[in-house]
Automatic annotation (TrEMBL):
It comes from Lacipirellula parvula. InterPro entries: DnaK_N, Znf_DskA_TraR. Keywords: Metal-binding, Zinc, Zinc-finger. Residues 83-115 form the Zinc finger DksA/TraR C4-type domain. Signal peptide: none annotated. One of its GO terms (molecular function) is zinc ion binding. It comes from the Bacteria. Pfam families: zf-dskA_traR. This is Zinc finger DksA/TraR C4-type domain-containing protein.
Amino acid sequence: MEKKVQAGFEVQLIALRQRLTREIDSSERALREDVFKPGRITNLPTHPADEDVEGLDSEIAISQNESRLLEQVEGAIERIRAGAFGICQKCGHEIDAERLQAVPYTAYCIECARGEREQIEKPVRDEPRRFL
């Protein structure tokens, strides 16, 4: 991949990293405020049944997703700087330009990404039971 193209991806990824960092910081502050509301006698969290926790679980899940995405973005920036950007980390083949345009932080070609997903989603089958 040409250095000019990689530089364009790097600019895009750095901007995404900055946005994600701001969003994660904001989410973490909001979560702390939700858990430790002013006016409490203690800073110990109470049982969820004692709190108005509507939406708290989804806020946590969103924050975790953004953190995982940030890790992927940082990995892509490192791959650019190491000269390995656009190369599948599993099979070593070049990642299609269309895939990189859609998911610039990807570390895998579409075939390997599908294989990883299938492994994750593959149902666990019980071994046949043997009776003595």
